[in-house]
Design brief:
Length: 283
C-alpha cells in the first residue's frame, strides 16, 4: 500500500480529520517475505533468512556466553536498493545478523550487549564463503534457509501520541485508528510473518526507543537522574531489522515474539552497524 492508499484507508475509517497527521505516522519499510528452500540451490551471497552465512575473510562467527550465536539473516543490499524509498541503507554491500543461541538476551539490561551482532561489509561480494555452523551451536538454534522476496510497504505507528506534536485526537478517533491498525494493510496480511527492514515496528508490548536509549547508556531505571538527560535522544533510534517468529525458517522467539534490531540515525548514516541495540518482545 502506498501513501495514497493509506490516505484512502483513513477516509474509509472515518478519520479524514487526521489526514493532517499522516506524515508523522507513516514510514516506508521494506517488507521481507520468506520461502522455505534448499540451501544448496541458493547462490553464495544471496539474501536469505536462516541457513548458513556466506562470510568474507575477517568476520569470525560471533559467540555469546561461550556458545556460538545463531545466524539469523544476511541481506545483500543490492537486492533491497529499489525498495528503499528514502535511500537510507547503503546501496551496496552485505549485512549479517546474529543472535544469542539460548534466546536469553532481551535488551532490557546493559549486560545484554554482546548478545547479538550485526556485521557490514561494503565490498564483500567477491570473496564470500559459505561457513559451516560451529559444532557447539545447538541443533535447535540453527534455522532453515529461506529465500527472500522484498517489497516496499508503508507502515503506521502503533503509538501515535509519541509521534505527533500537540496530539489532539479524541477518544473516538483513537479507537477508530486502533481498529484500522488491526486490519492494516488488510485482514489477510495480519496472519503472515512480518519481517521487515526500516519503517515502524510491529510492537507486541511497549515502544522500544526509550528502552534502547536508556539501556544502551547503562540506565535501567527511568527515575535515574541520567534518564532525564538521555530521554530526548529516544527519537533518534529507528528500526533497522524486524525478524518475526517464522515457521518457514523454524524461528520462534519466546511466545510467538519478534526480534528488533535498532540503530541510531547518526550511526546508520555513518554505517556503524555494530552500534545496534536489540530487543526481544513476545506475547
Amino acid at each position: 500500500m502506498d501513501k495514497a492508499g493509506v490516505e484512502a484507508a483513513f477516509v474509509a475509517a472515518g478519520l479524514s480529520r487526521l489526514l493532517k497527521d499522516i506524515d508523522y505516522l507513516a514510514q516506508p519499510s521494506i517488507r521481507v517475505y520468506t520461502t522455505a528452500g534448499d540451501e544448496s540451490t541458493l547462490s553464495i551471497g544471496t539474501s536469505k533468512i536462516g541457513g548458513l552465512p556466506d562470510l568474507p575473510q575477517g568476520i569470525v562467527w560471533p559467540t555469546c556466553k561461550d556458545l556460538p550465536q545463531s545466524f539469523i539473516a544476511q541481506i545483500r543490499l543490492d537486492d533491497v536498493r529499489q525498495y528503499d524509498v528514502d535511500k537510507v541503507l547503503p546501496e551496496h554491500g552485505m549485512l549479517w545478523f546474529f543472535y544469542d543461541a539460548q534466546q536469553e538476551t532481551f535488551g532490557a539490561d546493559p549486560a545484554d550487549r554482546g548478545g547479538w551482532q550485526v556485521f557490514f561489509k561494503e565490498e564483500a561480494q567477491a570473496a564470500l564463503q559459505r561457513t559451516p555452523a560451529p559444532p557447539k551451536l545447538p541443533t535447535d538454534s540453527r534455522f532453515h534457509a529461506c529465500s527472500l522476496r522484498m517489497a516496499s510497504e508503508i507502515t503506521l505507528s502503533q503509538q501515535p501520541q509519541l509521534e505527533i506534536p500537540n496530539f489532539d485526537w479524541t477518544k473516538d478517533e483513537q479507537q477508530k485508528y486502533e481498529q484500522l491498525l488491526s486490519t492494516f494493510p488488510d485482514s489477510g496480511d495480519r496472519a503472515l510473518p512480518h519481517n521487515r527492514l526500516l519503517g515502524n515496528p510491529d510492537t507486541i508490548q511497549d515502544d522500544m526507543r526509550l528502552q534502547c536509549q536508556l539501556v544502551s547508556h547503562g540506565v535501567t531505571d527511568e527515575n535515574d537522574p541520567r534518564a532525564g538527560e538521555l530521554s530526548p535522544g529516544a527519537k533518534d533510534w529507528r528500526l533497522l531489522f524486524q525478524v518475526d517468529s517464522d515457521e518457514h525458517a523454524g524461528m520462534r522467539w519466546g511466545d510467538n515474539g519478534m526480534l528488533y534490531y535498532w540503530i541510531e540515525q547518526t550511526a546508520l548514516a555513518a554505517r556503524r552497524f555494530d552500534a545496534t541495540w536489540l530487543v526481544l518482545q513476545s506475547e
